């Protein structure tokens, strides 16, 4: 029989990170330049492009 794993319960207050606005290097998001890529989704974008590149019927 496999060993029983123990887990630590995470308090609800620690499930979401909220940055201190004073530490951000801009006043409002209007000060930021729009990005041309999707952050942290490289594999997803590659999969999407692969799928969209299928030009045979049924794909």
Structure characterization notes:
This protein has 59 residues and is an all-alpha fold. It has one helix and no strands. The protein has one helix at 42-52. The termini are far apart.
The portion of residues forming beta strands comes to under 5%
Name the quaternary structure: single chain
Give the strand tally.
0
Radius of gyration equals 21 Å
Distance between the termini: 45 Å
Task: List the helices and strands in order.
Answer: H
3D shape: flat
Q: How would you classify the helix and strand content by structural class?
A: mainly alpha
Measured as a percent range, the helix fraction is 10-25%
Number of helices: 1
Spans of at least 5 consecutive residues with low confidence: none
Summed over residues and divided by their number, the pLDDT gives a mean of 90
């Amino acid at each position: 029989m496999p060993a029983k794993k123990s887990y630590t319960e995470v308090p609800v207050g620690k499930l979401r990170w909220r940055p201190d606005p004073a530490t951000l290097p801009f006043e409002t998001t209007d000060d930021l330049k729009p990005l041309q890529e999707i952050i942290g989704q490289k594999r997803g974008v590659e999969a999407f492009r692969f799928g969209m590149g299928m030009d045979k019927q049924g794909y």
